[in-house]
Structures are given as structure tokens and as C-alpha cells.
From TrEMBL:
Origin species: Triticum urartu
Lineage of the organism: Eukaryota, Viridiplantae, Streptophyta, Embryophyta, Tracheophyta
Protein name: Alpha-mannosidase
GO biological-process terms attached to the record: mannose metabolic process; polysaccharide catabolic process
UniProt cross-references to SMART domains, sorted A to Z: Alpha-mann_mid
InterPro entries: Gal_mutarotase_sf_dom (IPR011013), Glyco_hydro/deAcase_b/a-brl (IPR011330), Glyco_hydro_38_C (IPR011682), Glyco_hydro_38_cen (IPR015341), Glyco_hydro_38_cen_sf (IPR037094), Glyco_hydro_38_N (IPR000602), Glyco_hydro_38_N_sf (IPR027291), Glyco_hydro_57/38_cen_sf (IPR028995)
GO molecular function: alpha-mannosidase activity; carbohydrate binding; metal ion binding
Pfam families: Alpha-mann_mid, Glyco_hydro_38C, Glyco_hydro_38N, Laman-like_dom
Enzyme Commission number(s): 3.2.1.-
Length: 1260
């Protein structure tokens, strides 16, 4: 917090080493690696060896271990992970140590993401911090709940619990004057009785009194004193000498036991008590240290720096990918400098905007230097890839690409070139996401006589938009400020055109001079509000914005087809019935006048604190009429709100959101009032004081105005006390629709009134708030000794969805905001680009794209029902040009294998009733891996000598995250919903139906579907109410059975249900939902004719059954079973909720129960498993045949199947002929594949009635 005069980390470390060497009992902890590494590089080998000895003996311990102690309100979780990874990597490589403890003692509030993602998921056993709301602290002191088990994620549940300790007073020594720096005034321990100031008894009493006071607010008989604070131990011996004496005399006194310790030792002591701890959920925002001091201003402070950090974060992500593709250079440019600068920028006094101006300038300078080096790397990488079309090693491409980091102020020298004499501007567009991007690019150009072509030379649709004067003025001033020279002639137009870019790859577009096809390209038509009708509408396609006669936004409407809403996929069938989402709303600006520190309470509004004195609405009276630009790609509305606020609202063709760009500043302070500018969206939605904000760009957390779930809040600041940090977005809902707003940087925001959302965009204040900066937050930009207040440019994005649908957009588009398309430019003479370059590239298999809910991050459980589902990722197709030698799941900071981390993790007891947990399953490369719903990190290493293959050790493949959606009720609808099923749109979730009349157990269904054809639920109108769909287990119908009409059978025991889906398309064409209560079997069938089948021969006279009801075709290749145990769905090892299984068949006989003896588990040399079989209620069966086999539906590869646990009825296939791959066709057009390995042992599973099919041996 703030700055410290005379602070010197070098002195601390220089004096620490000899002090620790004097006594092996002494201990010390160190946190921020950026400072330590700088010191470390200057040390001799002898000192380094000495320090390594101190670390290995436990006298010096690294905790937290990141490059810095990052903020938790204004940082994105990916940046938190990256900076922590850099620090942990250094500690592991230099010392072989893995930090165990989180130490976030100074950030101003704490996020839920810190608890589970940067706590438990990096291997921490505990997290300690100080700053929580003063009312919360008072409550916890009274209930002894300063130490809790913090469960930061509903998805992770208890698997990511972490012990959290909150300091009772501060993070300094306890009350009683125990500061022992050479210039401190605390009494030393004078133990020479010959001296007049002998004070051993007094010092012991002071120490014991402090210990007893802290023990009164702490559970168990262990307490921790933090003996130090910021920049102390400049002369370490002065501290240790006094602590040596205190420990000696306190222990001699005997009332308490004192010892040198560390947070790790303290955590182990707490854990050993087996104490149950109170449970904490959600986060610790907002933070206030007194009634009028809410630390919510820094959520927005220094908005330009916040945006710069966010821009560099997305660029760093893309640059690292490109660096990986061509191989990291040992001598050329790398991304290291940018990574280091970004790590430092996450500090809790950096991106927060709570530093002095010269320090903020230094952070920006370091980012600029890092960007310049990364820019060179990006240019080289794109040159290599565009020339070779592969990721082969390359260091000196012929093609040089330029980039435009100042594009936000309309400055892009490469695009402002003269396009005469046959020259073309080549625009290479790189996509760092794992799925295909469709976006609109906007590039400044000099002329209106241009055309745009795609990589195939085809002219594509484009639109010219005149550049606003306010944008040009911003450009002219700031380019000279930043670069020292005035820009050349200004561009006159933006050219906008749609771009389609493959995953982890690029596309190329060409802009050249020429006559534009009127049917394809156009110049925007310009209208003023004065020339429009009173009912002004702006919009492309279904999305419309309505403006009133005064030029104010008044209504949002989006007409979506019923098909879209049901299928959750992009709808193009405009002829289908419309479903309209609309809301009346206003968009306004206002500013808060900041308290100046006068009056009875001197607390001012400043860099940290938001304390408004008054609010002033910015009136729209007398505004210049808005200007409307219309065209085939987008519409724009330009508005000069007042002399220092300009706004552009955009609606794009084919996009269902609104983009709002704002140019704000300089904020006037001539009236000597500091101002804090906010924009607000006001609707008529009844939101019941409730809104949702993100946690470090990840989870969304429910907020209720003027409410805290763990104590009764005394509301002193109704505005500042309801502000929360926003890194991704904020939304409100009213039961029928959701209003979401996403941001391009961290800001503060809230819903101060029902139906309203507000965002604080900019702050300019004239007083310091007394929290350490000692400088007012008054940012200025100076040119030729003329200084003006800072002008910022930014964007936010708005969308209204039906209730429950907004999560998809917030997650997918939010990821696109963090990882924007990267543009690079070069020029060419003539049209010979295709002769020497590739115009399109993807590092992934061109036919493959990651699912929407798998990227560098994915969705949170309980949000969108389609995307919050298990996901599968085929890494061989993600990295087709690289041999993957080994995949290791690691901690999130990649400093240990996850299995080892989980093995040693402390499992904390929670007071109160047990919490319900989610079960999630996940597949990588064809193999099922049971994991929690989480972000995971995989380390991929190469072990093939003689061939260069990049190592992905710290590339975040990243977090191939599986998410769970609880099973939902799916009754037979009156109007069947249509779905598409293919690789991008998996089968629907399993249906959970109530218990039947004869069974108290709920039933569950599994959808086995994997085919790109539509299917529809067949209504069961022919059944009487409450009648079951099928009969108890018996022989299935013959394979040749044909029924002209739907048939069904009802028996007295009727407790099996069968619902069928009919599919239309090539074989295999029919997939059935099969449902059963526990310990009952039903058949899962697939066959070409679309028919209903009777499942009980007693109800059928079908000639294909013999007189005894037996089926002569009982060993049909397409007969499969599954069932559920009585242990409950969550505990069932064959959970089939929300799965995407392929059709599974078997050829041969299933085993009989007579061979079932005991559980046996064996593995084959190839690492493959075999099948487990048994009858209902029978013990697990051991297969004696020496073979390993697995089955899958043709044409799918067995390694790619997404099998859970499936059953078969009958006998296992014999070993005869089972020596390789066998394909057997069935009469229904489906085929089965048997993969076996003679002589390989088998695996069984101790789950009655379960038959599992495993993957094929690797060597077949």
C-alpha cells in the first residue's frame, strides 16, 4: 500500500542471511520473487549455496511465491496464474521447493478465485490475509471465526477447500510495542539486572497479554504473531536478537509457549488438532476500514493503465503461442520481457492505480519495452508461418509484418500506405482461441477507392465509415505525446469487413485500390437525427435499438426465432415464429463529486477510496443531434454527450450485442471539485436488489444491495458500499430476461437501483485519501509544457437474453474480449502473394475445433445448461504436427504433478452438515478421467530424440475443463423440440424422471447419440396416463421384427421406462433413450427401420419368438444394457449425466454369473483395460479368457469413443479369432469392432451389474 521512504529490499536480504546462520532455530519467510530474483542475480556462488542450505533446512521459506503479491480486484485470473507460475518456476528450478502457503496480506479485499484457483489449485494448504471489512472483522472476532475453511467455488466444492486465516488486527507485530528495527522506538528486552532499565518481567507480561488477547478470538491453542511488516529487517540481527530473548524468557515464565515458526508450521499445527472450522463461501468484497472509507475507488483508478495491462495480457497470450509454433529463440526476441513486465503489473499497487504517477509511468514503460520485444517475435513468427505454412523452425523470414498498438486512437501507419501503382495492403489476422472466429475488422485507410479481397482473391463485402473528428483530434495529440513526432496526413475512413479465422491460426485479407462492386461494398449513408422520423431505429437483422425524438436511447429489441431458443444454436430460418426479447431502457451519464476531506470526517475520495459527496446527472438538453451511419455491415450512432464525453454506439450485422465506444476527458476541475464519471443503463426490470458480478474474470457471484450474508451490515455509504470490482462483466435478471454488460478493462460497478446497472469509467480527484500514496489522483498528459487531464477511450458491450441464456455469451464473448484478434500488416506489389505465401494457417487439425466450453478457460457449473457439461478434447488434433510423448496433469502453476499434490493436500474438516457435491467426468484423447469440475493444467513433454518438437511444459493447454449440470426433468413435450447432433452440438443431457409407482428410486436415462442428423422426441400419446413405456427385463424382439404401428405393453409390475428418439438420416439411424430404476435391466438398441419394439414376449405374439418366449437372435450384435445401482446418482461410478456417448455394440456372448468370484484388477502391458461383466445383483465377474478388447460403433475409432459404463447381456466373446481388429456387420446396417490382444490380462470392477468397455491396446 503506497510507497515507503528509505525502503531497500537488498539490505533486508543482505542482513538476513548472516542472521539466520547464527542460530538454526531462527526462521524467516519471503514472498515476492521479482525483488528476490534481482538480488539473487547479484550474488556469488558461495552465497547462493548458503541460501540454498537455509531453504532446504527450513530456516528460509518461500511462501506465496509469485513474482509479486498480486491484487485480487482489478486483475484477471489468467494474469494471476501467469505471474504465480513465473515465480513458482524459479523457486522449483533454483531450490527444488514448492510453496505451500498463500500470503495475500496487503491486497484490498479478496476474491473467491484467489481461494480455489490461486490457492488450492496451485497446491496451497492455507491462505493468510488481513484486509476484510471492519464490520466483518468485528463479527468474526466475537464468534472466533477469523480462521475458516474457504470454499470459493460451487463447482469445485470441497475438493478445492483451503484453510483461510484472517489476522485479528493487522499484519504487523502484536499490540505492546514489538518493533525492533534500529530506528524503532519500542522498548528492547533489557535482561542485564545491573542496568536501570531492566525490564524482562514487563516485556514478558506485554507479550503474554498480547498472546492471551489473540487466543480469545482464535480457535485451538495455537496462534500466530507476524513479527515484521513492510521493509523491516533492514538490519535483521536487531530483530532476531530481541526475539531470541523474548522466546527464552516467555518460555521460562511458562504461561505460554513461544517458538520461531512459519505459516507452514502453524498450518500443520492447526490441522493436527482435527478441529472443524466454519465454512466461508463467496468473497471478501467490498473492503472498508471505517464507516466512510470503502476501498472501491481503485476498481477504476488509472483506467488507461488498466486497459494497457489488459491489452498486453491478450497480446502476451497470442505471442506465446506463436513463439511455441516456431520454437523459442536462444538469442533473438522472446516474450520473456513482456511476461516479466505483466507479472509486475499485477501487483496490488500497480494495475490497481494506487501508486504515485512516476511509478505508474514506470510500469507502463516496462510494458512498452516488453511489448516491443514481443512484437519482433510476433512479426518473425508470422513471417515464418506465412512463408512455410508449417511450424518448422525459422528465424529470418523475408516477409516483415508491422503492427498497430495505437489502433485505439486511430493510428496505424501500415494501413495508411499509398495503395497506388498496384500495391496491396496485406492484413494477416491471427486467432489465439481454440475455435473459429467470425468478427468484423475496422482499419483506418486514406482513400474511399478501395476493395477488400479474401485469401482466395474473392472480393468480399466491406463498408467505409468516415472517421469522427474527435477521434482524429485524439490521434493527433497523443501520437505526438507518445512518439515525439506528429503523425502524417490523417486517414479519412474506417474500412470495415467481416473476417473468418481458424482456431490457433490466421487468415489473410488484401486491401487494394480499385473500383468497388456496388453490390458488395458501400460507403455508409449518413443521416442526422433531425432528418429522421421520430421513431428512429438502428440495427442489423433482428437486433434493433430505438431512439426517441431527443436522440436518447429508449428501447432494445431482439427478435429471436423459436428454433434458436430451443436449439441454442445459431438460427438462420427467419421464417420460423419469432420470440422477442425487449426492454425499455435509458442510457445516461453522471458524475459523483468526490469528498475533499473537509468537514467533521476528513476522509477524502482518492486513489483507493470512493466517497461521493454528491451526484450530478449530465443533462442531454441542448445536445448536438446524433449522427447515424448505416451500411451493410454495421450501423453507428455518434453522440456528443457534452464537451468532454463522446459516444459511438454500434450494431453489427449478424451480431446480437451492442458495442458502445466512449471517449471521455479531460474531466473538468475548474470548479475545484474532483469528479468520478459513471454511465448507467436504466430499465424497468424488477431485479429485487440483486445483481451479479464476476470474480477475477471467472465465476459470477450474486450480490444483493445493502446486504452481506455473514453479518448485518450498517449502511453508511449506500453507493460506495455497493460497488464491486468488474473484470469481465455484470448482469441483472428479472425472471424472464437478463441484461448483461461486458467490459474491456477492470472497472467498478453496481446496481444502485432495481433494473439499473452503472459502470464507473474515469476518475479525476484533487485530494489524497490518506492511504499511502500521498498524491492526488489527477492524471495529466503534457505536450510542449501544456498539460491537460487524461482522455481515455474504451468500450463496453451490452446484450439482453431470455432468462438463463446470457451465460453462453458472457463466457464465449468474454474470452474473445480477453483474447482479441491480432492484426499484422505488410504490403505486396502485384497479386503474387499466393505464389510465395500461405494465406491460411491453423496449428490444429483443420477439421477440428475445441468445443465452445473448452478454451483457455470455460464455463462455471450451474450457468448455461449446454456449455456447463462434460467436454472432450482430442490433443492429437489440437497439436497435429507435434508428437505428444507424455501428458502430465499438474498444479495450476505447473510446479508439481497433480497426483502428488492431491496426495499430500490437507483435507480440512468443516463444521455443520455436509455439503452436496457435484460429480463430473472428463475425457482426454479418448480416455475417461474422473475429475472435478475445474481448471486443470497439463504439462506435455516430448521424449523422441533426434527430432525437434517444442515442449509445452508451461503452455496452458489449459485448462481442459469439464463442467457439470445437474440432471433436469425432461417430460415428453407437446411439441417436440428439434436438435442437431454433431461434434459441435452433443447429445442432450440425460433426463431425470421421478420414481415410478413401484419403486422409490429415481430413474435415469442415457443418450447414446453421435450422428449429424436431427432427431425428435416421439410423443407417447397412445399411452394412458401414468402407464409405463415398457415391461420388465426380458428378451428383446428379434432382429427381423417389423411393426407397422407403434406397439407397447403394460404389465402389473411395470417399473421400467423406455422413451425413444427417432432419428432421420443414414445408418445408424435410431437411438433410444433407455431408463431404468436401480437393479433393473433394459435394452439400448439401434437399428435402421424406425420402429417401436415390444420388450416383453409375454405381451407379444410376434412369430420371431419361440413357444417359450425365447429369442433365437438373443446374441444380436447390437444388444447392449446399462443399469444404475442403489447407491444414488452422485455416487454411482457409471454416472451418465450429460454425456455424449457414441453408439456401443458388442459381438459374441456376454459372461454368465457362474464365473463371478471376486474383484480382480489387472493391467495389460499395453496399458489397456478389459471389460467387466455381471448379471443384475451378481458379484463382479472375472474373465478367464486371456484377451483385452473394446468395442465401438463404426466408423468411429475406439480411441475416440466417450464410453462410460455400459452393460451387455449374454457371454463374453471367446479368444478364438480375437487376435486383431474384427468388423462384423449386422442386418440393421450398424457394425461393431472388437479390439483384442491375445495373452493380455484383464481388469474387473467391483460394481455389481456393471459392464465397462475399455480402450483398445496401443499396439493394435
Amino acid at each position: 500500500m503506497g510507497a515507503t521512504v528509505g525502503a531497500c529490499v537488498q539490505n533486508v536480504l543482505d542482513s538476513l542471511v548472516p542472521a539466520l546462520l547464527k542460530d538454526e532455530n531462527r526462521k524467516f519467510i519471503y514472498v515476492e520473487q521479482a525483488f528476490f530474483q534481482r538480488w539473487w542475480r547479484q550474488q556469488s556462488d558461495m552465497i547462493k549455496d548458503t541460501v540454498k542450505g537455509l531453504v532446504s533446512s527450513g530456516r528460509l521459506e518461500f511462501i506465496n511465491g509469485g513474482m509479486c503479491m498480486h491484487d485480487e480486484a482489478t486483475v484477471h485470473y489468467i494474469d494471476m496464474i501467469d505471474q504465480t507460475t513465473l515465480g513458482h518456476r524459479f523457486i522449483k528450478e533454483e531450490f527444488g521447493q514448492i510453496p505451500r502457503i498463500g500470503w495475500q496480506i496487503d491486497p484490498f479485499g479478496h476474491s473467491a478465485v484467489q481461494a480455489y484457483l490461486l490457492g488450492a489449485e496451485v497446491g496451497f494448504d492455507a491462505l493468510y490475509f488481513f484486509r476484510i471489512d471492519y464490520q466483518d472483522r468485528d463479527t468474526r472476532n466475537g464468534t472466533k471465526e477469523l480462521e475458516v475453511v474457504w470454499r470459493g467455488s460451487k463447482t469445485f466444492g470441497s475438493s478445492a477447500d483451503i484453510f483461510a486465516g484472517i489476522f485479528p488486527k493487522n499484519y504487523e507485530p502484536p499490540p505492546g510495542e514489538f518493533y525492533f528495527e534500529v530506528d524503532d522506538t519500542s522498548p528492547v528486552v533489557q535482561d542485564d539486572p545491573l542496568l536501570f532499565d531492566y525490564n524482562v518481567e514487563q516485556r514478558v507480561n506485554d507479550f503474554v497479554a498480547a498472546a492471551l488477547a489473540q487466543a480469545n478470538v482464535t480457535r485451538t491453542n495455537h496462534i500466530m504473531f507476524t513479527m515484521g511488516t513492510d521493509f523491516k529487517y533492514q538490519y535483521a540481527e536487531s530483530w532476531f536478537r530481541q526475539m531470541d530473548k523474548l522466546i527464552h524468557y516467555v518460555n521460562k515464565d511458562g504461561r505460554v509457549n513461544a517458538l520461531y515458526s512459519t505459516p507452514s508450521i502453524y498450518t500443520d499445527a492447526k490441522f493436527s488438532t482435527n478441529e472443524p472450522w466454519p465454512l466461508k463461501t463467496n468473497d471478501f468484497f467490498p473492503y472498508a476500514d471505517n464507516p466512510n472509507a470503502y476501498w472501491t475507488g481503485y476498481f477504476t483508478s488509472r483506467p488507461a493503465l488498466k486497459r494497457y495491462v489488459r491489452m498486453m495480457s491478450g497480446y502476451y497470450l497470442a505471442a506465446r503461442q506463436l513463439e511455441f509454433f516456431i520454437g523459442k529463440s536462444k538469442s533473438g526476441s522472446t516474450t520473456d520481457s513482456l511476461g516479466d513486465a505483466l507479472a509486475l503489473a499485477q501487483h496490488h499497487d500497480a494495475v490497481t492505480g494506487t501508486e504515485k504517477q512516476h511509478v505508474a509511468n514506470d510500469y507502463a514503460k516496462r510494458l512498452s519495452i516488453g511489448y516491443k520485444k514481443a512484437e519482433e517475435l510476433v512479426s518473425t513468427s508470422l513471417g515464418c508461418l506465412s512463408e512455410s505454412g508449417s511450424n518448422s523452425r525459422c528465424s529470418s523470414p523475408t516477409t516483415k509484418f508491422g503492427q498497430c498498438p495505437l489502433l485505439n486512437i486511430t493510428y496505424c501507419p501500415p494501413s495508411e500506405m499509398n495503395l497506388s501503382q498496384g500495391k496491396s495492403l496485406v492484413v494477416l489476422v491471427y486467432n489465439s482461441l481454440g475455435w473459429k472466429r467470425e468478427d468484423v475488422l475496422r482499419i483506418p485507410v486514406m482513400s474511399d477507392s478501395i476493395v477488400v479481397h479474401d485469401s482466395e482473391g474473392k472480393e468480399i463485402e466491406s463498408q467505409l465509415l468516415p472517421i469522427a473528428n474527435v477521434s482524429l483530434n485524439l490521434r493527433d495529440r497523443h501520437v505526438k505525446v507518445y512518439l515525439g513526432t506528429s503523425p502524417a496526413a490523417s486517414p479519412k475512413f474506417w474500412v470495415a469487413f467481416p473476417a473468418s479465422v481458424p482456431p490457433l491460426g490466421f487468415s489473410t485479407y488484401f486491401i487494394s485500390s480499385g473500383k468497388r462492386s456496388a453490390s458488395i461494398s458501400s460507403t455508409s449513408t449518413l443521416n442526422s437525427q433531425g432528418n429522421e422520423s421520430r421513431n428512429l431505429q438502428v440495427g442489423q437483422g433482428r437486433l434493433k435499438l430505438h431512439y426517441d425524438a431527443a436522440g436518447s436511447l429508449s428501447k432494445y429489441s431482439d427478435s429471436k426465432t423459436q428454433f434458436c431458443l430451443l436449439s441454442r444454436i445459431t438460427c438462420t430460418q427467419e421464417s420460423l415464429p419469432y420470440f422477442k426479447v425487449e426492454a425499455n431502457f435509458e442510457q445516461k451519464y453522471k458524475y459523483y463529486i468526490g469528498q475533499d476531506g473537509s468537514g467533521d470526517d476528513p476522509q477524502a475520495s482518492g486513489a483507493y477510496i470512493f466517497r461521493p459527496k454528491d451526484v450530478v446527472p449530465i443533462k442531454t438538453d441542448g445536445q448536438v443531434p446524433p449522427t447515424i451511419l448505416r451500411g451493410p455491415i454495421l450501423d453507428e450512432v455518434h453522440q456528443q454527450i457534452n464537451p468532454w464525453i463522446y459516444q459511438i454506439t454500434r450494431v453489427y450485422k449478424g451480431k446480437d450485442y451492442v458495442e458502445t465506444e466512449f471517449i471521455v476527458g479531460p474531466i473538468p476541475v475548474d470548479d475545484e471539485n474532483g469528479k468520478e464519471l459513471s454511465t448507467e443503463i436504466i430499465t424497468s426490470m424488477a431485479t429485487n436488489k440483486t445483481f451479479y458480478t464476476d470474480s477475477s474474470g471467472r465465476d459470477f457471484i450474486k450480490r444483493v444491495r445493502d446486504y452481506r450474508s455473514e453479518w448485518k451490515i450498517e449502511v453508511n455509504q449506500p453507493v460506495a458500499g455497493n460497488y464491486y470490482p468488474i473484470n469481465l462483466g455484470i448482469y441483472v435478471e428479472d425472471g424472464s430476461k437478463e441484461l448483461s454488460i461486458l467490459v474491456d478493462r477492470s472497472v467498478g460497478g453496481s446496481s444502485i437501483k432495481d433494473g439499473q446497472i452503472e459502470l464507473m469509467l474515469h476518475r479525476r480527484l484533487l485530494n489524497d485519501d490518506g492511504r499511502g500514496v500521498a498524491e492526488a489522483l489527477e492524471e495529466k498528459v503534457c505536450l510542449d509544457d501544456q498539460c491537460e487531464g487524461l482522455v481515455i477511450e474504451g468500450k463496453y458491450y451490452l446484450k439482453i437474453d431470455p432468462q438463463g441464456d446470457g451465460a453462453r455469451w458472457r463466457r464465449t464473448f468474454g474470452q474473445e474480449l480477453y483474447s482479441p484478434l491480432l492484426l499484422a500488416f505488410t504490403e505486396q506489389d502485384g497479386g503474387n502473394w499466393a505464389n510465395s505465401h500461405v494465406s491460411s494457417f491453423s496449428a490444429m487439425d483443420p477439421t477440428y475445433s475445441l468445443p465452445e466450453n473448452v478454451a483457455l478457460l470455460t464455463l462455471e457449473a450451474g450457468e448455461h445448461k449446454d456449455l456447463s457439461a462434460p467436454a472432450s478434447v482430442d490433443l492429437k488434433r489440437v497439436f497435429p504436427d507435434n508428437k505428444i510423448g507424455k501428458i502430465i496433469e499438474t498444479s495450476l502453476s505447473a510446479n508439481q504433478e497433480r497426483a502428488a499434490m492431491e496426495k499430500k493436500r490437507l483435507k480440512w474438516k468443516v463444521a455443520g452438515p455436509p455439503q452436496k457435491e457435484n460429480v463430473v467426468k472428463f475425457m482426454i484423447d479418448g480416455d475417461f478421467m474422473p475429475v472435478r469440475g475445474k481448471t486443470v493444467r497439463y504439462t506435455i513433454k516430448e521424449n523422441y530424440p533426434g527430432k525437434f518438437v517444442p515442449e509445452l511444459t508451461f503452455t496452458q493447454v489449459e485448462k481442459l475443463r469439464a463442467l457439470f449440470r445437474p440432471i433436469i426433468s425432461l417430460p415428453v413435450p407437446e411439441a417436440p423440440p428439434l436438435h442437431y447432433v454433431d461434434n459441435s452440438h452433443p447429445a442432450p443431457s440425460a433426463a431425470f424422471l421421478p420414481p415410478s409407482a413401484s419403486s422409490s428410486y429415481p430413474t435415469q436415462s442415457a443418450a447414446y447419440v453421435h450422428h449429424p442428423s436431427a432427431y425428435v422426441l416421439t410423443p407417447a400419446a397412445h399411452l394412458a396416463p401414468n402407464e409405463p413405456y415398457a415391461c420388465p427385463d426380458s428378451q428383446p424382439p428379434a432382429r427381423t421384427a417389423q411393426f407397422a404401428a407403434p406397439a407397447y405393453c403394460v404389465t402389473t409390475t411395470g417399473h421400467l421406462y423406455q422413451a425413444s428418439y427417432q432419428a432421420y438420416g443414414p445408418s445408424p439411424a435410431t437411438y433410444h433413450y433407455a431408463q431404468a430404476p436401480p437393479l433393473q435391466l433394459v435394452y439400448l438398441q439401434a437399428q435402421h427401420p424406425v420402429r417401436k419394439h415390444v420388450t416383453d414376449p409375454a405381451c407379444s405374439s410376434d412369430p420371431n419368438y419361440d413357444a417359450n418366449g425365447n429369442d433365437p437372435y438373443r446374441y444380436d450384435a447390437v444388444k447392449s444394457h446399462y443399469q444404475e445401482t442403489t447407491s444414488g446418482r452422485a455416487a454411482a461410478p457409471h454416472e451418465v449425466a450429460a454425456t455424449n456417448l457414441q453408439l456401443v455394440m458388442h459381438y459374441g456372448y456376454a459372461p454368465g454369473s457362474e464365473g463371478a468370484t471376486r474383484e480382480t484388477t489387472q493391467s495389460s502391458a499395453e496399458g489397456a483395460a478389459s471389460a467387466i461383466y455381471s448379471h443384475a445383483g451378481a458379484p463382479a465377474t472375472t474373465q478367464a479368457a486371456p484377451l483385452v478388447y473394446a468395442v465401438a460403433a463404426a466408423p468411429h475409432e475406439v480411441a475416440g469413443t466417450n464410453l462410460q459404463l455400459v452393460m451387455h447381456y449374454g457371454y463374453a466373446p471367446g479368444s478364438e479369432g480375437a487376435t486383431g481388429e474384427t468388423t462384423q456387420s449386422s442386418a440393421e446396417g450398424a457394425a461393431s469392432a472388437i479390439y483384442s490382444q491375445a495373452g493380455a490380462p484383464v481388469t474387473t470392477q467391483a460394481v455389481p451389474s456393471v459392464y465397462a468397455v475399455a480402450a483398445a491396446p496401443a499396439n493394435l
